[in-house]
Amino acid sequence: MLFRSSAGKGYTDRLYTVDTGGSLWRFDIGTGNTATWSGRKVFNPNPGISGTTDVGRKAFYKPAITLESGYDFVFYGSGDREHPLNSAVIDRIYALKIKDTDTTVKTETDLVDVTTNQLQATYADQATATTAINTIQTSLKTKSGWFIRLNENAGEKVLSSPLVFNKVLYVTTFTPLSSTATVDACTNSANLGSSNLYALNYMTGEAVLNYSYGSSGND
User: Fold this and answer.
1) Is the model's pLDDT at 183 over the cut of 80?
2) Are 128 and 169 in contact (CB under 8 A)?
């Protein structure tokens, strides 16, 4: 659960939390009268953009937040802590713009899919690059946030809270080894998988730092 205090108030007026179904909730508690407090679901990640079979995302760790002009920017990742070796679900990293005027539960269709990192992709020529980048930048400004599908490594999932520092979103993930699919993670002390650290532009989801061993530049 993450508590938010608006600038200058000096007290908590809102909190955000996730549930084990992967959804994000907002609770407004900005007055001394508890009768006026309210709470509602603001985002549901299931099913995803791939249809009714794109389901199964869970969340266990508190989100991070930045206070922007006109909205809260809330960040969290999905991943089943109870089944860390499961590779049947494609988990996500989410960045959501939550406005006071929002009245509906957002889904992935309200966000920009930045999985393929279009802002830093290689294009055939400058004209193509300009068109593609302008399109994605416009979508990032008008839509309600962005998300990244963790689909390059089977079973990769977020099993910790994210951190935003100096406009960089840091997210750690765990990827199980394919050979550990039937192993009991609670009793087996062998190497069960690997971890990754993502450093992303918190506004766009593009890579800021390249931690890949042996490579150079910011990919």
Assistant:
1) no
2) no
